[in-house]
TrEMBL record:
Protein role: Component of the ribosome assembly machinery. Nuclear paralog of the ribosomal protein P0, it binds pre-60S subunits at an early stage of assembly in the nucleolus, and is replaced by P0 in cytoplasmic pre-60S subunits and mature 80S ribosomes.
Keyword Cytoplasm: yes
Organism of this sequence: Petrolisthes cinctipes (Flat porcelain crab)
BP-aspect Gene Ontology terms: nuclear-transcribed mRNA catabolic process; ribosomal large subunit assembly; rRNA processing
Segments forming domain Large ribosomal subunit protein uL10-like insertion: 127-194
Subunit field text: Associates with the pre-60S ribosomal particle.
Any one Pfam family match given in the protein's UniProt record, by short name: RL10P_insert
Stated name of the protein: Ribosome assembly factor mrt4
Taxonomic classification: Eukaryota, Metazoa, Ecdysozoa, Arthropoda, Crustacea
GO cellular component, one term: cytoplasm
UniProt-recorded Gene Ontology molecular function terms: RNA binding
Amino acid sequence: MPKSRRDQQISLTRTKKKGLEMKQSLVEEIRKCVDQYARVYVFSSLHMKTHRLQDIRVHWCNSRFFLGKNKVMALALGRTPEEEIQDNLHQVSQKLVGQCGLLFTNATNEEVIKYFDNAKFPVTPHAGDIASETVELKQGLLEQFSHALEPHLRKLGLPTRIERGVPELMKDYVVCVKGHALTPTQASILKLLGKDMSFFQLKMEWCWNRLNATFEDVNPRSKDENTCDSDN
């Protein structure tokens, strides 16, 4: 028999009234979705881009995405077997660590995995990302940059000067090497160059099935990194 614990009191202390109302609304919406959708996925997010996320939301308009506070989402589902509102939902709560969210959907597991494995959108890299190619700038005029940007280029470590109103690179310069982690400076230079070496992606990690209350790993390839980039 399904559990009925939706009327239990949830403590959201140390919260201003407006923030409390928002958190309570999030809890209520998540609990409604538990009954409305067949599956709940925990996903990690890489290089979040709002406009790309909106495109995905439009494509999955019959499903619901939640990227709220992890602790509040966990409270809504139940953090322990005693608190969970359906069997095994506490296992979902335990995976809400770092930069991640929930997808509620009636789509089949095959449909979900196929779409999100292929939904990758190029973005400029961040510090710590691995360079996908070696980028080298040759000595000469950097006509893609304005003269006003030349002091910033020098600050980033490029050996430049102004020549005929255009930044000039005085010698060859290796920006990054394929396979090496990027420094903040390298990432900034690649952004100026418009080099997209990283991807925005939602990676489905875990799935809870309401029909049989099972909880499973749907991304075994990356379980060594099953927590996300950073904690909320």
